[in-house]
Amino acid sequence: MADVTADSAAGEQPQLKRVIGPGLLLLFVVGDILGSGVYSLTGKVAEEVGGAVWVPFLVAFLVALVTGLSYLELVTKYPQAAGAALYTHKAFGVHFLTFMVAFAVMSSGITSASTAARAFAANVGEAFEIDLGTGAGLTLVALAFMLMVAAINLRGVSEGVKLNVLLTCVELTGLLIVIGIGLWALGFGNGDFSRITEFETGDRSAVGGVVVATTLAFYAMVGFEDSVNMAEECKQPSRIFPKVLLAGLLITALVYVLVAITAVALVPIADLAKGDTPLLKVVEIGAPAFPTHIFAIISMFAVANTALINMLMASRLLYGLAKQRVIPRPLGNVNHARRTPHVAILFTTALALGLILFVGKVAELGGTTALLLLAVFTVVNIAVLVLRRDPVEHDHFRTPTVLPVVGALTCGFLVTPFTDRNPNQYAIAGVLLAIGVGLWAINYFVLRASGSTPPPPNAPKADITPAPES
Fold first, then answer.
1. 237-266 helix and 22-34 helix, angle to the nearest 10 degrees
2. In the 3-class helix/strand/coil scheme, how is the chain assigned residue by residue?
3. Is 178:279 a contact under the CB 8 Å cutoff?
4. pLDDT attached to residue 383
5. 439-448, pLDDT tens digit by residue?
6. Do residues 43 and 270 touch, judged by C-beta distance below 8 A?
7. What global pTM score does this model have?
8. What is the C-alpha to C-alpha distance for residues 64 and 83, in angstroms, rounded to an integer?
9. What is the rounded average pLDDT of the residues 408-436?
């Protein structure tokens, strides 16, 4: 406790505790990417593209990989929390843009976590045959679950990440069960594996169908960007991030492609696209003797993991922004005993509880989340090129110059209406960003009135130097 006492005596906030090694980080990345997306979106993707459902997942992986390499350059160059917002601030020095990038990332994470909490409550009802309905009962369970996530987050990042290890193993087991059922069906001649090469895109061309399906499938690939917000709690982040992040992307892409192939081979596309539990249908048809309530429990843990990781990310994002003085400094306060950003955790939890209470299910949540993050990824890919003018003293990963260009163009295109994206997604994103504009205005005038303003973009760059790694 000597270091904590010293921090207190000096009147300074303690540093976050570096407890995450390569193994925990890999499981964090894999668990965050797997999440609830593949458990609920496989049927919706198949509805857009037909039996070749694995193609949009593969395209989404390639887009994520290019952007992931940009993130790798930036996180190894600036191994600090705040992720995309930090990179935007360093590259452009426009406080409004920084705030909006941060708000878009935080909104996508908290909204996803809140929806996952409601999905968790629904899965509790299915797994244990409890009639929670769709009103107060479901909401109360979701609220209780979110408070439990907050308690884990407040307890410490080590506890949160270790629980993530357990939940990741559970959700990965569920997907391996689906893959195993597919291999069993292939061995015994069950299922129709010829469907995996069929494109059923309606009035669209095959390319058009793949593009539309990719805007949905990309939601299942997001999550890798959350890991950069844990950089200050990683051991030797500049060394371990490249191989860990790339390994995580490759593992999840392989799992997704195999799951997608199994799903369309065993379940007709029309049936797969109905409802929000496509993989449960795969289990029911491919292995009728398998106890489906067990798979429902696995799905429950999968969405729980999504909520936990997103809330970890959101709180660390606010903490990092406060350290950069982009938002008020109190949000960067760290608990001296637990070494966790307790104010940021309480703030993000309050927002999540509000969403659970006052916002119902949004049909286009996955597409809207992907829309917001694709816009952020466009900015990040551009920031990589801009920040090439800002050398640092330590060695770091460097992506080939052409890849951020490809990433910016690709992500930017997937944001546009040319992808035939559902207009409701733009409406939802527009409302969220409008709220962000209002909050930025309030924050700006409060800071201005108090005389506490963020440092100018050309301020001394002492904060760029990474803290000593343990």
1. 30
2. CHHHHHHHHHCCCCCCCCCECHHHHHHHHHHHHHCCHHHHHHHHHHHHHCCCCHHHHHHHHHHHHHHHHHHHHHHHHCCCCCHHHHHHHHHHCCHHHHHHHHHHHHHHHHHHHHHHHHHHHHHHHHHHCCCCCCCHHHHHHHHHHHHHHHHHHHHCHHHHHHHHHHHHHHHHHHHHHHHHHHHHHHHCCCCCHHHHHCCCCCCCCHHHHHHHHHHHHHHHHCCHHHHHHHHHHECCHHHHHHHHHHHHHHHHHHHHHHHHHHHHHHCCHHHHCCCCCHHHHHHHHHCCCCCHHHHHHHHHHHHHHHHHHHHHHHHHHHHHHHHCCCCCHHHHCCCCCCCCCHHHHHHHHHHHHHHHHHCCCCCCHHHHHHHHHHHHHHHHHHHHHHHHHCCCCCCCCCCCCHHHHHHHHHHHHHHCHHHCCCHHHHHHHHHHHHHHHHHHHHHHHHHHHHCCCCCCCCCCCHHHCCCCCC
3. yes
4. 95
5. 677 767 777 7
6. no
7. 0.78
8. 16
9. 87
Could you give the CA distance from residue 180 to residue 229 in angstroms, rounded to a whole number? 34
